[in-house]
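User: Structure tokens for both sequences below?

Assistant:
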Amino acid sequence: MGIVDYIAIAAIVLIVGASVFYLVRAKKRGQKCVGCPYAKQCGGHCNGGCESMTTENKNDHE
């Protein structure tokens, strides 16, 4: 393996590590649906939209 291979492996490890770090921090902050843009307002049942949000708040974000 050459130096380019080691650099590529290091980049992949860095990206995966940063993703895991982000997910752990988001869960510690109390976000139930980390990928949801309404994660702080969501009731935790996200499947494409937050049903638990009021219609008024939801319309503001669409």
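Moving on to the next sequence.
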Amino acid sequence: MQRWYTRFPHGLPAIGLLVLRIAIGAKLLLESLHCLLGPHGLDLGIATVAALAGGLGVCFILGFLTPLVAGISALGWTAIYVWHPAYATTLSDLASFEIIAVAIALALLGPGAISLDAYLFGRRKIVIARVARS
């Protein structure tokens, strides 16, 4: 993970990335709930896609494996836009492109310092104990 990012931004950039992650994560969670509780019923394919979207939304909000999650969600939204344009037009064309653009931006920028990625994979301070010489 550290090879993907040279650093995790702190301060206001970290808060901005957190806001972007929460916005996309909440959108994915709401869309997954809409699919599960909507008029489609519990079709296996729709339930699987909804569960995947819900899991991606939680990972976005927590900032866990952000580049992977952002790539998967950008590809997923692009696939929805290409193969199911009727669903994409209910969101409006501009909203679909905004979601894809923010997901790509998060994949390139990283999760920021306020994330599980920074906690798990961020830089560590290594302290080497002094050895007493006799």
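User: Anything stand out in the second?

Assistant: The CA atoms of residues 32 and 50 lie 4 Å apart.
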